[in-house]
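I'll show a record.
***
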Amino acid sequence: MCSGNFAKCLGITLLPLAIICVICNIMLFFPGGKVADESNDITEEVFYFGGILGSGVVMIFPALVFLGLKNNDCCGCCGNESCGKRFAMFSSILFAAVGAVGAGYSVIVSCLAINHGPKCFTTVEQVNASYPFADGNYLSNRTLWSECTGPGDIITWHLTLFCILLATGLVQIGLCAFQVINGLIGTICGDCCGCCGSS
């Protein structure tokens, strides 16, 4: 497969992943699927926008760059028809690195949120939401979940959405790493399909 075609496939894959991350982050603003009475009732890590910014908006740029690599005009650059394609592949490495950093940020935020646990109402505190799980102990001891009385099934909601963000971020990092390798090959060897009608 041509390096340009491979990059296009990566771009096509990254776009829906970015949309999924944005949607998950937005859903986290509704703890337990319910509208929060005030912002203090929402888990703090949600406001770090790991899914909206890190794996979402930031990932859109490399995805669009990867999508456009195959159609990049590479003719006549410095008298060499392939150098434009090589430069485009090199620039894709930089965008892949930016995408990996954004996804990495989302992964870190998700890990912190999963370990920290959700902010919820407890049997002790029914008025203000608090963090009943300080060190991730609820992950291995499900009986502790009864400490959260709401809103809704907040623990499942919290874990499901942040786990989706974590898994999606890891996939995005992997895809960006593939593009770094693909970009290096394209920079050194050029597009194996050639350009300017020579494919």
Remarks:
- The longest helix spans residues 154-189.
- The mean pLDDT is 86.
- The two ends are 12 Å apart (CA to CA).
- Strands lie at 121-122, 148-150.
